[in-house]
Design brief:
- The protein has 376 residues and is of the alpha/beta class.
- The protein contains 12 helices and 13 strands.
- The protein starts with 32 loop residues before the first strand and ends in a 9-residue tail after the last helix.
- The relative contact order is 0.17.
């Protein structure tokens, strides 16, 4: 057979590997404990489930290609211009669209070193060069990012809070980053975890985007709304950018069930409040209990924590496999340049209690003379 070669650079891309979803059942809960993908701890909003089920008899119909009702509802909720909202199949699709539209061969896409992998992968897919800027203590370094911006830079991505580190930058630093960029460079603020943050110095970026011509903000329904499986994201863009993205997106990129569920979820304010309260309680509890085992837990403003095994004598991958053997799934971090770390999503109360106990057992096992942590 004749091998048909893809465009140069495509085969250099390492495929994205998400968090594992299959494991043996945890013996205490009788099911796997899935803490690898930062999914909503409380599941989907009840109103979203009802809307999804109600649409069963209409799935032979094409969806609204512009996600009009959803865009208008988002605009009302956040005080935005609906014409500047673009919905996508998760914020992942919007990352791809904005890079495809504004970066290509010879261009550069700047992002922090440990940022969400899709910035790098989509830049490479478009033929652009990703530029990873070293963090400072696992936080994006504004000065270093500005120093990395050159004549070839077209886009700067910043996740705030960041995934997988959990770190965040205050409003003043976001504004300083924007102020230092040339007007020809798009600043893309990825605010996937914004609903979890309640800090007076935090911004989701929407206020900045409202008054600037080169700021884009990405949001998602995959986290606090619990709709990861339906793939619904949205972004707020300068009017010209929104127009460009509508030209290149698929005509029916957000399916009808996803639109209906997301629209209903927006109105389920009690569920959102309960999800935030749950995270406010169990994220610090989990971080404190894990730290008691001798592991380092980095501060997080998301619905997850980054657990660092450095200096403990325990290999992070061995620990992940050992926990998987107990039916507990955590996320490996080697692809993010953090091989000594695992990311642990915040789940239900019983999942957190079981996971903390398992981590404590694992570290006690490692501390016994001649013992080692084994997994797989």
């Amino acid at each position: 057979m004749t091998l048909i070669e893809p465009r140069p650079g495509i085969l250099d891309i390492a495929p994205y590997v998400g968090g594992e979803s299959r494991a043996v059942a945890n013996p205490r809960l009788g099911r796997p404990i899935r803490l690898a993908s930062n999914e909503g701890a409380l599941g989907p909003a009840p109103a979203a489930m009802a809307a999804y089920e109600a649409l069963a008899g209409e799935i032979h119909r094409y969806p609204d290609g512009g996600s009009t009702a959803l865009s208008e509802a988002l605009a009302r909720l956040h005080g935005l211009d609906p014409a500047r909202i673009v919905c996508g199949a998760g914020s992942d699709e919007l990352i791809s669209l904005v890079i495809r539209a504004y970066a290509g061969p010879g261009d550069e896409v700047v992002h922090s070193a440990h940022a969400f992998l899709m910035y790098k992968l989509n830049a490479m897919a478009a033929g652009a060069t990703p530029v990873a800027v070293p963090d400072r203590d696992l936080r994006a370094d504004v000065d270093a990012m500005l120093a990395a911006v050159g004549d070839r830079t077209r886009l700067v991505f910043l996740a705030n809070p960041d995934n997988p580190t959990g770190s965040w930058l205050p409003r003043a630093e976001i504004e300083r980053l924007h102020a230092g960029l040339p007007s020809r460079v798009l600043l893309v603020l990825d605010s996937a975890y914004a609903e979890y943050v309640d800090r007076p110095d935090h911004t989701d970026g929407l206020d900045l985007a409202e008054g600037e011509d080169n700021v884009c903000v990405l949001r998602t329904f995959s986290k606090i709304y619990g709709l990861s499986g339906l793939r619904v994201g949205w972004g707020y863009f300068p009017s010209p950018v929104a127009g460009v993205l509508h030209r290149i997106r698929s005509p029916f990129n957000v399916n009808a069930a996803a639109q209906a569920a997301a629209l209903a979820a927006l109105g389920d304010t009690d569920f959102v409040a309960a999800s935030r309260a749950h995270n406010d309680a169990w994220l610090p509890w989990t971080a404190a209990r894990i730290a008691e085992t001798g592991l380092t837990v980095h501060p997080s403003a998301g619905n997850f924590v980054l657990v660092d095994f450095s200096g403990t004598g325990v290999d992070a991958e061995a620990a992940r496999l050992a926990l998987r053997d107990r039916g507990i799934l955590l996320r490996q971090m080697g692809a993010y340049g953090l091989p000594d770390c695992l990311r642990l999503s915040i789940g239900t109360e019983e999942e957190m209690r079981v996971t903390v106990d398992a981590a404590a057992d694992l570290m006690r096992e490692a501390a016994r003379p001649g013992e080692a942590v084994h997994g797989g």
